[in-house]
Specification:
The chain is α/β, with parallel strands linked by helices. The chain has a single domain, classed as 2-enoyl-CoA Hydratase, Chain A, domain 1, CATH 3.90.226.10. The protein is built from 11 helices and 8 strands. The chain has a 6-stranded mixed sheet with strand order 1-2-3-4-6-8, sandwiched between helices. Strands 5-7 form a two-stranded parallel ribbon. Strand 2, helix 1 and strand 3 form a beta-alpha-beta unit. Helix 3 (80-99) runs antiparallel to helix 10 and helix 4 packs across helix 5. The protein is globular.
């Protein structure tokens, strides 16, 4: 499935036991509320598809993997309900990835900001390129990485997320992200990355699907409270985005 390029796109391709989910947006592969809703819905559909065992999550192009939340939509939020609904979109996607019984393998080919870091952290295994530097820029625009924090902390730990989030204008390298546990493998170029990704995902898809599903439950033990936690965090972030500080910061950042 997909939509017109200007509003963002989401495509699903199933080959054998592997499903590829590819998202895209002209603004650095950032996410609008509509894209987040469709993304979560597609993940729920794939969760019930008994013909697949592995999902590969990737974005369009060879540059940015994900620019996080759409600045246009952040600027257009005018009340608390709208803010909570928008940030609940990221909460819903992370929870859909968490509860999906399929192993999710991420392909991170370029820079990743904010919510994109949360997506990478919600994957079960991540292939990245050298160009895949990361940044949690939320504090620099007046909000905080509240919704994605549990997913990121689960992968890299409290010390690393503290370092990452409190230096919101600093890019951390792909190798830093690998050292901290966010990325599983880092490659010199996309050709090598894609060759390894195809081999890995196809090999993984041939394992016992029930064993994979049972093992994924073990990997995500202790996260069932995220259904409520992430929604609560979305409400807090929705309040923060309404502040004059944030409105001015986003406007300046966008320019």
């Amino acid at each position: 499935m997909g939509t017109d390029r200007q509003n963002g796109s989401l495509f699903i391709d199933i080959t054998g036991k592997v499903a590829k989910v590819e998202f895209g947006h002209p603004a650095g592969n950032s996410f609008t509320a509509e894209m987040l809703d469709r993304f979560a819905a597609e993940l729920h559909k794939l969760s019930m598809n008994e013909t697949i065992s592995v999902i590969v999550l990737q974005s369009e192009g060879e540059r940015a993997f994900c620019g996080g939340a759409s600045f246009e939509e952040l600027m257009s939020i005018s009340n608390l309900d709208e803010g909570k609904v928008f940030f609940s979109g990221f909460a819903n996607v992370i929870n859909a990835m968490r509860t999906c019984p399929k192993i999710i393998v991420g392909r991170v080919q370029g820079k990743t900001v904010g919510g994109g870091v949360g997506l990478a952290a919600s994957c079960d295994y991540v292939f990245a390129s050298e160009a895949a530097s990361i940044r949690l820029s939320e504090l620099s625009i007046g909000i905080a990485a509240l919704v994605i924090e549990p997913a990121v902390t689960r992968k890299i730990g409290e010390a690393a997320i503290s370092e990452l989030s409190l230096s919101p204008t600093e890019w951390k390298s792909a190798y830093w992200a690998q050292e901290k546990g966010l990325f599983s493998k880092v490659f010199d170029n996309l050709k090598e990355l894609d060759e390894a990704l195809v081999f890995f995902s196809e090999q993984l898809s041939n394992y016992n699907p029930q064993a994979l599903a049972d093992w994924k439950k073990v990997l995500w033990e202790g996260t069932s409270h995220w259904d409520n936690l992430l929604k609560e965090r979305a409400g807090i972030t929705g309040r923060l985005v309404l502040s004059e500080f944030t409105k001015n910061a986003i406007s300046k950042f966008k320019k």
